[in-house]
Structures are given as C-alpha cells and as structure tokens.
Amino acid sequence: MKNSNLQICDTQIHPGESLTLALPMPELFSCAPMYMPIKVAHGKQAGPCLLIIAAMHGNEVNGTEIINKLMASKALNRLKGTIIAIPVLNVFGLINRSRFLPGGINLNRSFPGSENGSHASRIAHLFISEIFDKADYCIDLQTGFINYSNLPQVYVDYKNDKARSLAQSFNAPVISDLAHTEGSLGLYAVKKNIPYLLYEAGEAMRFDEQAIKVGTKGILNVMKEIELLPSKVDNKIKKFKSAFATNNIWVRASSSGLSHATHTLGQYVKKGEALCVLSDPFGASEDVTVNSPEDAVIVGQNNLPLVHEGEGLYQLALFSREMQATATRLEEWQENSTEQLSSNNNDSTTV
C-alpha cells in the first residue's frame, strides 16, 4: 500500500522523501535562535512510524552518533513506513555540555509539558504535540553520567508484552525493568500505550564505539521486527539471548578515598566478592574493601579514582536464576562484540 503524506509543523513530507527539518525552540534571553533538528525518512510504502531520539540530556553524544550512522545507512532504501529521528533533543544542554536545561532542569521530568508552562515544559509540549504523538514506537538513546560507564542495556516496561518482545529483538546483553518516574517520557509513553525502549550505554561526553555499534545494530533489529525493513535471515550470525534482570542496585563507597577497581563492566561477581579497595590518599587510614552484596553482573561503573563517601561505585544487575549461565552468555557476548569491533575498525562500509 502506498504511503500517505506526513505533516510535521508546517512541512508536508511526501512518500519516498528524506529530509532534515528545524523545529524552532522557545526563546532564551539572549534572543539567539535555537532549533531542534529533525531527520525524517518517509518510505514510499505504508508502515509504522518509529521515533528515535538522542541527547535527552544534552551531553549524551553516543546516541547522536547512532542516529547519524543509522540515517546514512543504505538499509533505509528499503524502508516501509517512517522514521523520525531527533539527533539532539536537548539542544541547550549540548551547546553547554550539560545534562540540563536553563536553571538546572531535567527535560526528562517535564513531559508532557504545557504550552504556557516553564521553559522546559514548553519544549516538552512542543516535542510531544509536533513529533511524539505521530509515533507508533519510540527508542530513546541515553548514556551514563559523566565519569560513569554503562554496559549496553535496554530498559523497558516489563508489563508491556510488545515492548518486551522488541527489547529482546534489540539484542543488547541486559534488559532491565523501566522505572516510571513522574514527568518522564517513558511514563508518558506507557500512558499512551506506545512501546518505548530506553537504550543506555557508554558514558556522557565520550564516544564508545561498542555502545554505538550495538545501538545501531539494535535499532535495525527492531526495525525488522516491526516490519519497517524486510527481515533477512543470516545463518552466519549467532543471535545473543538477552538476559532479563530482576533488579538493579547501586553499590556505594563506605568511605572516601582512592578507588582501586578490581572488576570491569560485564563481569560476574559473587556475593561477598571484592569489587574495589578504597585507600586513604594521605596514607593515614587503613584500606577499606567494598564487597558485592549479591551474586550479580556489573552493568555500571564509576571511572573516577577519587570518590566521596556515599558515592556510587558500581551498578549491579541481579537475575532470578541460572546466574552462572547468564554470566557465561555475557562473557561470550563481550568476546564476540570485541571481535566484531576490531573487524569493523578496518571496514569502511556503512551498516
């Protein structure tokens, strides 16, 4: 079936067109114009509309790179439906290398927003009314905080069977339950019954080639699952089985000092096993060992050597059963991903 015209703001997009738009943002006191970039690929044939957003927090550059790679992919020549991609949702944050909007406001606590509300609320309302409400599915690309690295993982509402299925097709190593924070885009998507995936990988303000590769491939997998792209069976590719976490917990520093890490992302740790050693930088106190409270897999890590008491050191994912088997699968995934990354560094072809 032939696709119909798509309207975003005042622009009519015809079937088969791909273009970049600029959505005017609420003004700042500097009077300097600011625009939200919108990339659209509108297939000739009818199909679902997938919205992909990045840089919800402006300093998250991995998602921006994923979108740019995806929109340049030759695979989109076979598109059946529509992709709307926002490489930078929080333009102010990107310019200022910050997670936040003016006044230190988190955009992801401002949805669905209001036409006459605060600056953040107006941006949220503009995004919802002009873009989000046109989507059938949404993938949100985020990273860890500055100095915190995350293993590639997908957060999804476990109660939404369709979203869970799409999370599995994404093929990231870990899938975690999405917390419904008030004002978040994820909560709004749940209320609108729009399947929503939050992909989180890498660290803010730093490129992570593995995170970018897994994210780009994951989106293509989802596009095939929802029939935006034709599905092609390749027997040479061994599909990894994602592990569903039952809970994610933070291990925090019991004292301040220099953190000497003994583990890295993706590693399995047993209950009571040493995660790191905290030493006094002045040599006046004895070392303190921080142990894992549970059998778990490390999915987040603080990269700073100097830490304060109470600061997050590791994020651990817990699994209900077959912990050792899950850990083994994650080790295999890491080895496979490292090999693919090494191979792709010598390959200039697009995905």
Task: Provide structural commentary.
With 351 residues, the chain is of the alpha+beta class. 24% of the residues lie in helices and 31% in strands. The chain is built from 7 helices and 19 strands. Strands 3, 4, 5, 6, 7, 8, 9, 10, 11, 12, 14, 17 and 19 form a 13-stranded mixed β-sheet that branches. Strands 16-15-13-18 form a 4-stranded antiparallel β-sheet, with no helix packed on it. Strands 1-2 form a two-stranded antiparallel ribbon. Helix 4 links the parallel strand 8 and strand 9. The longest helix is centred in the last third of the chain and has 22 residues. The mean pLDDT is 91.
Could you give the topology of this structure?
Elements: E1 6-8, E2 11-13, E3 18-24, E4 35-42, E5 45-54, H1 61-71, E6 80-86, H2 91-95, H3 119-130, E7 137-144, E8 148-156, H4 161-170, E9 174-177, H5 185-191, E10 196-203, H6 209-225, E11 243-244, E12 247-252, E13 257-261, E14 268-269, E15 274-279, E16 288-291, E17 296-302, E18 306-307, E19 312-318, H7 323-344
Helix pairs in contact: 1-6, 4-6
